[in-house]
From TrEMBL:
Cell compartment(s), UniProt: Cytoplasm
Keywords, sorted A to Z: Aminoacyl-tRNA synthetase, ATP-binding, Cytoplasm, Ligase, Nucleotide-binding, Protein biosynthesis
Native source organism of the sequence: Caulobacter endophyticus
Signal peptide positions (record): none
Binding-site residues, L-histidine: D93, L94, T95, R123, Q137, D141, R304, Y308, Y309
InterPro entries membership: aa-tRNA-synth_II (IPR006195), aa-tRNA-synth_II/BPL/LPL (IPR045864), Anticodon-bd (IPR004154), Anticodon-bd_dom_sf (IPR036621), His-tRNA-ligase (IPR015807), HisRS-like_core (IPR041715), HisRS/HisZ (IPR004516), HisRS_anticodon (IPR033656)
Protein name per the record: Histidine--tRNA ligase
Domain Aminoacyl-transfer RNA synthetases class-II family profile, first and last residues per copy: 1-383
Subunit-level organization: Homodimer.
GO cellular component annotations of the record: cytoplasm
Length: 494
């Protein structure tokens, strides 16, 4: 028996919210990213790299480095179990899918295999300011060449790609190091265990933030920070600490001078000498490719992918001064990076396959360009808007829209229910270059009235007298309908 006095359950209404770490992007953001991707992809293709697209999902065991020893591999990646009980995960980056593809198709691929790829990647990590769980990357990699010149070509492409994306010379720099130099130095310093080596490298990676004195403490017994927390150090002795600090501070002057400084520190180490030789060949190739010292430098303090890279490592750093929407200074730092990873394909084949590559963080680069006032799509405009005066003339409006679209001009008929003033406001919010007015008089006379909204925005900033503004009606003209396309093209600069 139903209790009619019981309160009725209201229909559930979910809260409209985006998951943390996943951003909604409107046209401005998408245009900016598309502009960067097209510019960088064109550079990759000029260097002879072939486009490759792999699926969003890979088998979880193929991704490897972020998977824990548990039944559900969901640490670092977003994973699900397929109907055949195999775990799949959204790709964490574009390099692991490349390694899988290369191993799977190695016999039929041209060697070395040069490919570029772009697309979204997903990371199941804690989101934060500027740190997303889904973002766009754009990579270029050479698989199958151990030559340092392959690293140099990747670096040269990255330099050219950054400029093509909208960063002029001097706005960014590629910093280069070699893990073999670090490994040789650590061996000389007496760091024997992998744990101690990683501790040294992590200490070096904090040089920009903590300075020489802070790193010195972390290389030794440890460091007590301002909050009172103690970080255990790498446990090196005094002379070994001095050698490491001399090494990371050797990047003074151009690439050649830095190589000479490094040679004094790592002399006598077989692995260090090998790394030094590789950097010298990279420097020579970069010079031949026209990459100057101010565009790519050797910086011994650069540490990337401590358990990933095997040789040369490189990082793109933004040098521009950037501010947020409130005018506060923002430090972006790294906007891309890469290096040599000779062990990744071997996970599948058991055979070492040399590889090197670079990755642009496209979403991050777009944000950095916007903060620096150099957004590639900042001048992007919306479509020409045809004002809707009367339902009876809808056919005429669509005919004009079709005429403009056929000429390659984006156009739309206003399909809301508002009057003239809100329609003009709509066109302005769309950043439309022009509004087309086609009333009964214009239709009868075979004319159209065009309002140049770009000119109107420019003049509006200097108008003091509203009556004069209305009287002058700047940027508005009535022309024969046959002249419409030419007039609009003139407004949009086409």
């Amino acid at each position: 028996m139903t209790d009619e006095t019981a309160p009725k359950t209201e229909d559930f209404r979910p809260e409209a919210r985006a998951p943390r770490g996943f951003a909604d992007k409107r046209a401005r953001d998408l245009r900016a990213e598309k502009s960067i991707l097209e510019a960088v992809s064109a550079v990759y293709e000029r260097y002879g790299f072939e486009a490759l697209d792999t699926g969003a999902f890979e088998y979880a065991d193929a991704l490897g480095k972020f998977l824990p020893d548990s039944d559900r591999p969901n640490e670092g990646v977003f994973a699900l179990q397929d109907d055949d009980d195999q775990w799949m995960a959204l790709r964490y980056d574009l390099t692991a899918p490349l390694a899988r593809f290369a191993a799977q198709n190695w016999e039929t691929l041209p060697k070395p295999f040069r490919r570029y790829a772009f697309g979204p990647v997903w990371r199941n990590e804690k989101p934060g300011p500027g740190r997303f769980r889904q973002f766009i990357q754009c990579d270029a990699d050479t698989v199958g060449s151990a030559r340092p010149e392959a690293d140099a070509e990747i670096i040269a492409m990255a330099v050219e790609g950054l400029q093509a994306a909208g960063l002029p010379r001097g706005a960014a720099v590629l910093k280069i190091n070699n893990r073999k130099l670090l490994n040789g130095l650590l061996t000389q310093a007496g760091a024997t265990s992998e744990g101690q080596k990683l501790s040294v490298l992590r200490a070096v990676d904090k040089l920009d933030r903590l300075g020489v004195d802070g790193v010195r403490l972390l290389l030794g017994e440890g460091r007590l920070d301002d909050s009172g927390d103690f970080t255990k150090g790498a446990g090196l002795a005094g002379k070994a600490i001095d050698s490491v600090l001399d090494f990371v501070q050797a990047g003074v002057g151009g690439r050649s001078a830095t190589l000479n400084n490094i040679a004094k520190v790592v002399a006598g180490s077989a692995e260090g000498d090998e790394g030094l030789e590789e950097l010298a060949r990279i420097d020579a190739a970069l010079t031949s490719l026209g990459v100057a010292d101010d565009q790519a430098i050797i910086d011994p303090s650069i540490v990337r992918g401590l358990e990933y890279y095997t040789g040369a490592v490189f990082e793109a750093e933004l040098l521009l001064s950037t501010t947020d929407e409130k005018g506060n200074k923002v430090t972006f730092g790294s906007i891309g990076g890469g290096g040599r990873y000779d062990d990744l394909v071997a996970r599948f084949t058991g055979q070492p396959v040399p590889a090197t590559g670079f990755s642009f963080g496209v979403s991050r680069l777009a944000a950095a360009l916007r903060a620096a006032g150099r957004e590639p799509a900042s001048a992007a405009r919306g479509p020409v808007v045809i004002i809707n005066f009367d339902q009876a003339h809808m056919g005429e409006y669509f005919a004009v829209a079709g005429q403009l679209r056929a000429a390659g001009i984006p156009a739309e008929v206003y399909l809301g229910t508002s009057g003239m003033r809100p329609q003009m406001k709509y066109a302005d919010r769309r950043l439309s270059p022009a509004a087309i007015m086609l009333g009964g008089d214009e239709i009868a006379a075979g004319t159209v009235t065009i309002k140049d909204l770009d000119l109107g925005r420019e003049l509006a900033s200097g108008v003091a007298d509203n009556a004069a503004w209305k009287a002058e009606r700047p940027g508005q003209q009535t022309i024969p309908r046959g002249d419409l396309v030419a007039a609009v093209k003139k407004i949009i600069g086409g």
